Amino acid sequence: MARYRTPACAPADVRIRHITAHDWGAIAALEDRAYAGRALAEGRAALESRGRASPGTCFVLDADGAPEGYLLALPYPAFRCPELRGAEESRHATDNLHLHDIVVAEHLRGAGLAGRLLARLTATARARRFRRISLVAVAGTAAFWTRRGYRPHYDVAPPAGYGPWAVYMSREAGR
What is the pLDDT of residues 156-170, one digit of tens each? Predict the structure, then answer.
């Protein structure tokens, strides 16, 4: 029998803001819960390194005063992506913004909050004149991203650490 989840109600006070030093513990915990059992969790040090690489394109979903989601994006050359678990050591001059990770706390999924994070990312990409936004769809999520305008590039092989169903995808930032 199929299991359907009732959409969550958004908390009363939700805002998207830039990540602060105090958010990283909660972000690491959210990442750990989201990827538990999938061998995709990177750990706090790697997450923080991505935030340092591009603080202006990384956001936290603040719900009633607590981090309940996040989005990490950084300039990265088109058709390439960061290794998982490794710290981000360099900054790239490119017109491609790579959406590295997006997580919303499980109890808030279905309330449209991921869409709000993605809208903020797209607006930021346009304002900063990025031409494309890329990502790696993991764990069979390529159909989800296709519905949001991302196109798969099956000729680009993500590093093995992203898992066997990883698909590199991209879209124009102006859409």
Answer: 999 989 998 999 999
